[in-house]
């Protein structure tokens, strides 16, 4: 730490504070509604949550009924009254009893929230915005204008967004000649401060391409470029400045690449006024910054960087935690402040090639930049300061006074997209660690506010209690904590590279004969069935040997021999085989994924997550067995010792589907195995090569012979034989309702020599609905419905095949959905640019096409994507409207990319429709009504209900998966009750009293 | 506290100690094997347990193989060597490596344990005993002689016990004239000490009547009298003295009554030398003593009392705790000492009419008696002192010195029955609170040993930590602790009186028409079936209305309407209905029992415990629902909230058997109801009147209409209709395998309109075996097998119907079993004297008789009790030998009092036979081999295994009940997994992040 510099920074900061003493940002002004409400929110965390959520939904509340209902739902306490603070300003209209008429209260709240929103927006209309910008300039501030509305779900919306920019540029073009340049120390009097364009635009690149995704950097950059270039061209024509904003981490790589491509594009290479944003809170920014400067020097191109701390801290952290990734942001606030100072210095050191925009409201950070620039003799023309419009007014004023170069970041546009921005701003103002809150609301001491963040960090770390072994991170009672296998992170280039490489690898060695695996030995048969790539039938993955009755007998005999040993292997040892298998699968994860991509047409991420789920099952069931493997003492009576424990049922027939060919198969097999039941596994013929992956994993893990037997075979030859065999004690089946019910019936017939009642665990179909409530966040709902319905071609039992839309929002939702669905890319799943691939097999293709005919008869086709490859098992993505609840298309499971849209009068009506099938597997609700969400929790009766998110992708442990009614028997895979179904409980009672003498145990209920 | 007296007591005690200073009981003499072993046992609790258990089994270890195996199993540590202390005395034979040859070690241990046993016994043979008694008299001690062997399981054994007394009296008669009277202050020189007979006999009354039981005081007293009178007659003829010992609490009342009857019997009324024992440790003894003295004064008859502290303290406490009774003994040792002093004073105050024998080894207690007697001027001729033979030698010597009147309690007889006595003595010597241990082994200070026990108690209570709310007695997480309903306590006269009164009450009002109960209303039908008393067909209990298809429809409709409300009633509220129902049942317990006694022929206790089990189910499932009713958060990822919870399945058809007509019925119904599933209940026609009890209980508890519907009906008319009905979601069945399998098959067929897969919970039959190992305690094994096989006429699915006896013990066990079974009383269950009653119905009678014919063909009838009432559904109790494992009688469930006996070569062979049926419900093992017990735990694969006790009577929570294979589907009633089967799990996942803002919850896995 340079103590001299630090002292100067603190001194500068003190001066800064002094110069604005007594002022406060308008948002904290308690003379007004907003200030009062902010104050209350900072004191009351649950009010804050409700307030921010209410602000979020507010733009959707167009009717008086809707507004008053939401006010009540969000804010009414037990006394059925809303907090006084919200009603402030409507005092004069108080009734005799001090109660407002609801109309007046609504009006007050509406007016105030709109005013609060407008505070951060330079205008809702273009004209208003341009006027606002002119006014700011008159006050001495430069601007950069930003169009609200980053969420574009379709190319049409992306076009509109582009057009919005062109429109505001047009409007500015008509005015900007009238604007006087702001004075400064630079040379060109037509430029602001003598060196920078008056017109300055900021843009969020992801909004310019609805199909942008991190797995496809090149495609995403191209898509964005196609709309950014016209904008930049216009900016250049106007002699303006363009800044490419940095959004969440998943767009980081494409944004950096976009900047490089645009900066080096021959058309624009000569034009210097292009900036990019870096976020100091990202751990990778030091590296990105160094890279960028190095690149600029190599290219000999001047660049410009706006350095911010970052506005998505909560989200990045939550997303990382949810996905099992390292948290990408600094986890202590001072660490971001330190990074900001460090990176600012790097930029300033490179001021010859890099223009710097310091964007912070933090007076310490600003002072640091000022003093560092001074120390490094950076000319004023090489850096500027930026703050957000409507925020931190004292800071902008102070900056204007001291630096004379302040640019305001000015969003404009509709309130609806604007609310996302508003919520971020409110968060920034009210977070406990917010500099603004601490400075202007909490009255933290100046010394602390200006403290070197390195010191702050040290103090915070020292004050932090040592992490306690709370049983949660340490695991419980010696059982290691379960953690889901991490989701694939496509922001990591190595992850993206691994897929093509794994695919190429298996391609180089596939095509041979795959044997059965019985009693630990490969068994080849004459009879084989080939398995092929559904995107390209001519590509054969393997010839799969087929078990006949003799092989089933051999497998059952092997399993029986194994049973007598395996059942007495300790739970710990059995669990260890699962742990080892998980290790093997984790090591082979890309290879295992590649098989699925080629055999059933899974997309990269879908395939990887299938493998991850399989690993999770292995890890979770192993832990569950450790838990359940411990005998429990029952009761506490002295002289009596009761122990409850579990034993395996016998031999398990595992019959699995092709859609989660690894995860579901190994999940069922692992559950059976770890509980002590040897397995005879019959995979689906559609995914038999992936089925063989289980053999590969278990063999490598050293599972004893006979415990797992791989028996693919023709159902017509050996299906019933296996199910009906008296040696089979349980049947674990996942698949269609028809087959599941047939198995249950067959298994209920006791065969000669059968020694036990067969247990059937059947996970069957679904006809899953997502309800779109009238206040649903459509930016979210459209994308999640799309994913739920068409992810992996809709071939998930959890997939959404009905979307039930409440009337008032029907048109808005459906039109956006259709456009979004119209734009997704369809083609081989091998290519990560494609959103949807072929269905898994030609028979399935035929079936789906039949249902599309039914859809055409029963309803109105809203979308039918016939722009699909001619070869391979492709089917048109289809959305059908005018569907009634009793239509076949609304009742039967299709298992393909066919989505029925139903209209409901009310939310209750939607629930009624949703519950109105024989199935009860998954469901979803998009709503921002607390009462409707609560009602859905109770009354949307499905196995897995998802609120405000997609309804596929249940994770082991976190979302135990499975349904009831005709969707299944009420088991739940990956949940705490699952393994119980594989075991029979036993209780051993010992009378420990002999001759009147009973040893007393510690946990006896002995005399007090 | 009389401080003067107390000081004198302490002074006297000090003198006493002084007079014996330096001496110690021989058992603590560390110069010998016993002393060393006792010393080690007192230092090492687990060794003590093993030692006492080994001593218990020791007399059965007749072969070298058996002895060495048990030594290894009981004492070998990890180093596979037995503790050195056990081998002491065999030192000279040590091998080179310090290891004994096993032969020599065995011999050493055998010799030493026999010597230890003999130490407490005056002789094993009569002749040896009489010689021993003469020797004691020469040493100045009087005696009272006691014949070991209190456990008599048959009348033949009771006869033998009586004859043993007559034999020893004969032998004494031949000798006693030669004995000089002991000198004393009394007047008659032919009497000991001048006033008491030389011949003195103590006797345990329970041993004189194998059918003694507390429920039948009068019958028990008569049975005992029949064998005691000849003994007493002989004692009187010899001018001797008889003392009736007090045994465990269950014999207390009959012993007191026995004393009164014998004392007032015209034949003996004139003869004063009859004594009874009172136990100071019983809380009721103050009352008993006062009563006895009052009675003596009323009768104007002198009496004699031996006051002891009591030798069954552990057992009384354990039995009370296991049965849910108040602990009948003082729970603090000083309380018993206080009671002893208090009661001794009362007796001494009444010395004019009550002769006193002070029987204690406690020098404080003895001193207290001496000083109190002195204070009260009690003549020496009115009290004496007693100690046990072989115990506390210094005390007896001191007593002889000081009082001159010491009688030794002298057991004699075989080692096998003697070992029970030996274990009690070892316990008495080694217990932490033992006066002998404290005085002579631990070296406790004399002041403490002689302290007034009142003071000791106060100190102990003060030192005791306040009871901590440990979650165990308080219940867990707000759910009240579950406690089993108390067993019936027939030592309480009110309990005995309640049954005849309840029976009379229902008799006075029975006979009418019992309606169905549908939708909260009585429904009468034309069609009725009468239900009668199986002991007396002419006694009709009721005409039961019969549901047809229309009534089933009505019930299902009512249940369906109720379902839509009931499923959303909170778990707490549903649980409360069960709590209320339990309250009602508890209040009506005797009435509910009476119905079973008359309708299905249950014995009083069996009926009461059936009701108690029903109450337990209500209480337990209510608590289980409170536990399971709380949604669980799954995973801890921030921004995501997953809740796992359960919902009811739908309508439950409950089809119950007649053998536990209340418990099983209300258990299944309660489980369904509390989990939210309305019930249509079809009772067995054999117990339909008891079935109606459910209606009565639930109606009184206020259960809403339609939640419980009572639908008795003919299976042929409505059985399949109910099972196959599409509205039925689950079928809870308990009954035969045939019906259970049929239901499973029927339920697997999906009917038109059916919306769910039906769940069948089927508890079916058993063919339960008890294994008798070669070291089994036959005193226990015979009685427990008897109860397991013939309790409630063998009509329990848990009943023992095979006893598998290991060869070496076969003859001894079987002969005792047959004799015991030959003596039990058979007749109406209404009469508590009867052990066995009629089977429940004439069809069952026919079935059992058919099986008896099979038994006669397949094996050799060992016992067939044809001495049964001619009227009513009686069947002969039958035991059949020479049965092979594959015989029908060894494979098929009979459900009646027919027991097959099978011989096994080894314990492993016995296990193989035991496991060799299609059933796996209950099993039992009587063994004292630690390894065999451990092996049985693992390999005796049944739902409920019982070690060293009967295998019926599973208690809710303590012994979750149910089997697998063809015995059931692996559910366990009354266990922690039971309710899960009645519900479908649901998981609701909420994405709590909106606009990048996620409220962080306390249990989130947020950043550290």
From TrEMBL, chains A, B:
Coiled coil: none annotated. Residues 528-986 form the Aldehyde dehydrogenase domain. Pathway: Amino-acid degradation; L-proline degradation into L-glutamate; L-glutamate from L-proline: step 2/2. Keywords: NAD, Oxidoreductase. The active site is at residues 763, 797. Gene3D superfamilies: 3.20.20.220, Aldehyde Dehydrogenase, Chain A, domain 1, Aldehyde Dehydrogenase, Chain A, domain 2. NCBIfam families: PRK03137.1. Belongs to the aldehyde dehydrogenase family. RocA subfamily. This is L-glutamate gamma-semialdehyde dehydrogenase. It comes from Desulfovibrio psychrotolerans. The lineage of its organism: Bacteria, Pseudomonadati, Thermodesulfobacteriota, Desulfovibrionia, Desulfovibrionales.
């Amino acid at each position: 730490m340079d103590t001299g510099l630090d002292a100067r920074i603190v001194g500068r900061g003190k001066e800064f504070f002094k110069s604005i003493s007594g002022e406060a940002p308008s948002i904290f002004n308690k003379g007004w509604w907003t200030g009062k409400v902010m104050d209350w929110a900072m004191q009351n965390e649950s009010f804050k949550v409700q307030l921010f959520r209410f602000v979020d939904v507010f733009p959707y509340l167009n009717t008086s009924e809707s507004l008053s209902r939401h006010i009540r739902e969000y804010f009414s306490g037990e006394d059925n009254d809303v907090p006084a603070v919200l009603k402030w300003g409507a005092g004069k209209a108080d009734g005799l009893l001090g109660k407002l008429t609801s109309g007046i209260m609504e009006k007050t709240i509406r007016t105030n929230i709109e005013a609060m929103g407008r505070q951060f927006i330079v205008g809702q209309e273009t004209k208003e915005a341009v006027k606002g910008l002119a006014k700011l300039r008159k006050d001495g501030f430069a601007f950069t204008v930003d169009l609200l509305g980053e969420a574009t779900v379709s190319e049409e919306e992306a076009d509109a967004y582009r057009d919005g920019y062109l429109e505001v540029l047009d409007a500015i073009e008509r005015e900007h000649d009238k604007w006087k340049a702001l004075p400064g120390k630079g040379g060109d009097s037509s430029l602001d401060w003598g060196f920078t364009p008056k017109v300055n635009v900021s843009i969020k690149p992801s909004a310019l391409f609805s199909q942008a995704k991190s797995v496809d950097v090149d495609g995403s950059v191209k898509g964005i470029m196609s709309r950014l270039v016209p904008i930049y061209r216009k900016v250049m024509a106007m002699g303006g400045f363009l800044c490419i904003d940095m959004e969440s981490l998943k767009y980081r790589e494409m944004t950096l690449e976009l900047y490089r491509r645009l900066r080096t594009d021959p058309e624009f290479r000569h034009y210097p006024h292009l900036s990019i944003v870096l976020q100091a809170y990202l751990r990778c920014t030091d590296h990105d910054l160094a890279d960028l400067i190095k690149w600029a020097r190599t290219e000999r191109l001047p660049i410009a960087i706006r350095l911010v701390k970052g506005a998505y801290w909560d989200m990045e952290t939550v997303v990382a935690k949810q996905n099992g990734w390292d948290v990408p942001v600094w986890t202590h606030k001072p660490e971001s402040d330190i990074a900001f100072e460090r990176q600012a210095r790097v930029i300033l050191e490179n001021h010859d090639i890099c223009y710097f925009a310091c964007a912070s409201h933090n007076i310490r950070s600003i002072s640091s930049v000022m003093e560092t620039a001074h120390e490094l003799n950076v000319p004023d023309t090489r850096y500027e300061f930026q703050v957000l419009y409507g925020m931190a007014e004292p800071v902008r004023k102070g900056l204007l006074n001291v630096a004379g170069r302040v640019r305001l970041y000015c969003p404009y546009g509709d309130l609806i997209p604007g609310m996302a921005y508003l919520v971020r701003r409110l968060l920034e103002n009210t977070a406990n660690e917010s500099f603004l809150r601490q400075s202007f609301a909490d009255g933290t001491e100046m010394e602390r506010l200006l403290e070197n963040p390195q010191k702050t960090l040290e103090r915070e770390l020292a004050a932090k209690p040592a992490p306690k072994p709370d049983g949660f991170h340490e695991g419980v009672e010696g059982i290691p904590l379960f953690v889901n296998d991490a989701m694939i992170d496509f922001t990591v280039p190595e992850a993206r590279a691994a897929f093509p490489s794994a695919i190429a690898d298996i391609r180089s060695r596939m095509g041979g004969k795959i044997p059965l695996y019985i009693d630990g030995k490969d068994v080849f048969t004459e009879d084989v069935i080939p398995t092929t790539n559904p995107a390209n039938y001519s590509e054969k993955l393997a010839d799969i040997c087929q078990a006949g009755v003799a092989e089933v007998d051999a497998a059952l005999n092997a399993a029986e021999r194994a049973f007598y040993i395996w059942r007495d292997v300790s739970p710990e040892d059995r669990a260890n085989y699962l742990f080892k298998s998980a290790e093997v699968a984790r090591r082979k994860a890309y290879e295992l994924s590649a098989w699925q991509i080629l055999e059933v047409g899974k997309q990269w991420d879908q395939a990887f997550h299938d493998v991850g789920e399989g690993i999770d099952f292995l890890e979770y069931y192993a832990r569950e067995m450790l838990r359940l493997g411990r005998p429990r003492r029952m009761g506490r009576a002295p002289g009596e010792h009761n122990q409850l424990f579990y034993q395996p049922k016998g031999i398990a027939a595992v019959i699995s589907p092709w859609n989660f060919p690894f995860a579901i198969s190994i999940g069922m097999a692992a559950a059976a195995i770890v509980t002590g039941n040897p397995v005879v596994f019959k995979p689906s013929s559609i995914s038999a090569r992936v089925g063989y992956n289980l053999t590969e994993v278990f063999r490598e893990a050293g599972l004893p012979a006979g415990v797992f037997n791989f028996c693919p075979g023709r159902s017509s030859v050996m299906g019933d034989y296996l199910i009906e065999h008296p040696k089979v004690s349980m049947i674990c089946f996942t698949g269609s309702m028809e087959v599941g019910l047939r198995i249950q019936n067959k298994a209920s017939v006791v065969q000669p020599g059968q020694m036990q009642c067969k247990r059937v665990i059947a996970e069957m179909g679904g006809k899953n609905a997502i309800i779109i409530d009238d206040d649903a966040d459509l930016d979210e709902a459209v994308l999640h419905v799309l994913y739920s319905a068409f992810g992996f071609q809709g071939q998930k039992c959890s997939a959404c095949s009905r979307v039930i839309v409440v009337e008032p929002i029907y048109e808005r939702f459906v039109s956006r959905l259709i456009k979004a669905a119209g734009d997704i890319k369809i083609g081989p799943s091998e290519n990560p640019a494609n959103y949807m691939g072929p269905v898994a097999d030609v028979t399935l293709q035929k079936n789906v096409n039949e249902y599309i005919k039914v859809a055409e008869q029963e309803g109105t086709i809203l979308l039918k994507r016939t722009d699909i490859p001619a070869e391979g098992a492709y089917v048109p993505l289809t959305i059908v409207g005018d569907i009634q609840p009793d239509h076949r298309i609304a009742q039967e499971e299709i298992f393909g990319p066919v989505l029925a849209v139903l209209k409901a009068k009310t939310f209750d009506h939607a629930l009624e429709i949703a519950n109105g099938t024989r199935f009860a597997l998954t469901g979803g609700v998009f709503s921002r009504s607390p009462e409707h969400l609560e009602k859905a929790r109770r009354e949307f009766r499905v196995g897995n209900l998802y609120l405000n998110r997609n309804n596929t992708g249940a994770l082991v442990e976190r979302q135990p998966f499975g349904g009831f009614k005709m969707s299944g028997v009420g088991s739940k895979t990956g949940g705490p009750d699952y393994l119980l179904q594989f075991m029979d409980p036993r209780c051993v009672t010992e009378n420990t009293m002999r001759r009147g003498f009973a040893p007393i145990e510690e946990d006896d209920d002995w005399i007090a």
